[in-house]
Amino acid sequence: MGNKIHPNSVRLGYIHDWESKWFSLRDMPALIGEDFKIRNLVKQTFKMAAVSWVGIERAGSYLRVNIHTARPGVVIGKKGADIEAIRSQIENMTQRKTFINVMEIKEPELDSRLVAEAIAVQLEKRIAYRRAMRRAMERTMQSGALGIKVMVGGRLNGGEIARREWMREGRVPLHTYAADVDYGTAEAFTTAGLIGVKVWIFKKQLFVKSPKELLLMAKKEQQAPAAVIAPKGETAPAAGIAIAPAPAASPEVKPDADA
Q: What is the spatial distance between Cα 14 and Cα 244, in angstroms, rounded to a whole number?
């Protein structure tokens, strides 16, 4: 995998989901270009709103745009004015009925795109790249990440020759599909030139590895009571769910007072 395969794309369908959810073989080139324009419009409009990514869903003549941001109040604006303005722009661009949802990112320190943008902003303010990288890595590890890797490339500290520097803390298993590795990039526009920032964050291991852990999971499921909510007037369980009848309670035998 290394530097050749995108960590998010290789996990699509396993542990990561698609950012665009629609399918149309005939109009695919035009719709891909349309998605690109929508994302650029949202990013340019809400530069200071910490927008991580934009999800796009299509169904017939309807379009849903999900904006994932760490500052939902900035995106919505005063009395929803900003969100209404961008909704009308997207409708004029796509000629589709548009719905916009604003999703809050509760832990921005665990979002690779937001971490990369934070490092890029510090580089634009002429903060030393090593200090900016260390700060971001410390905050991410304190938030509960299992590992983080940060790489910057370009004319670092105004050097005449461009180079790459990287730092890592914890472990970042790029070759393990069960590892939830979040990958994001950003660019810093400095006086010396463009500096690229790449961030890999290893959040958690999703799949069970040992038979011992499988047994523990099975015991927890057996101990947990099964609750099935059936429609009113129906007592049969849902399809595919089998519930064993509860054993009849044995009558309690009390000793005879005369004995």
A: 33
